[in-house]
């Protein structure tokens, strides 16, 4: 990719160039440089790139340019662009980006997701908006009640499509598609190219151009991965000890359960560590506020469950802590990908109890390497329970583990665009 390429090299229009520059951007990322031209040319597209590489702008900028040629918008006659996202947080962040890039355009948009009152969303759909950002569940609910007009849709985007499939949205997506005509441009963005993603693309895209940037599967190279062996009863105390290190400035802590997240947050607050929480039992206003204060640096730690954290895009997370060991390889990769995003560096710390040793060994086999181990006196499980890593004692009998995960690095490559 030519290093001198700028956004002004793409025919986006003066008003979009101005908004992008006001947002502080001049040079496109690799996914943006590769995706914008075919989208402007009207091609269906599959973009495979890890989170944090600038995928949102890669589809937002050309869609805005085509919605508002020369900075103007044609007479309104129903929604012309729909962006589907798996979580409320991601939908809200896409909305924020669209508003920033389209700030000088006469664009009307709405964001549709659950967890908040539906009346403003209904009013926006009734009034006729040009672009809708939506989670599939709430959008389908409103469509079935007779709100919204997708019959003239020109642009459809599946963002983080792999997560939408993981979260069981495929039936809702298929129902939504009944309101949409085939004559449209469809874009699919995903961090992986699994068989399920390929099936989704075959169902809804026509002769798509496929762009792949790097690999999502092996954990981000800039992330240092460290394992603390700990007794299950001492994990909360160990977290407080680890947080005594001032280098852990902006920390995302993953809990397996909602109640566990609440307990972790209470422990940290009692220890004097300012903490926010995101999980499914929190209201949308609470989740939005938690993200806001974390982004602003008003709290040092954000505690989250896996599903709630999907789509979180916060620059500058210094550390991810797996308080509870993740259930799958994909969850592990997704979690540690919250730090070390784009060109940044970061650290991922995993707490591993005796019950997690088999799962850890399985992860190391999938990664093809051992993770660095660390123990702190007084916190570690009994020495007799310690289990060797992938490079450990020969002849050690593997323990059974229910841990499962697809092998990271299993993407089937079609077109590779190298990182700059």
TrEMBL record:
Every Helicase ATP-binding domain range: 36-211
GO MF entries: ATP binding; hydrolase activity; nucleic acid binding; RNA helicase activity
Span of domain DEAD-box RNA helicase Q: 5-33
Gene3D superfamilies assigned: P-loop containing nucleotide triphosphate hydrolases
Enzyme Commission code(s) on record: 3.6.4.13
Keyword Disulfide bond: no
Biased composition (Basic residues): 401-420
Protein name (database record): ATP-dependent RNA helicase RhlE
Gene that this sequence comes from: rhlE
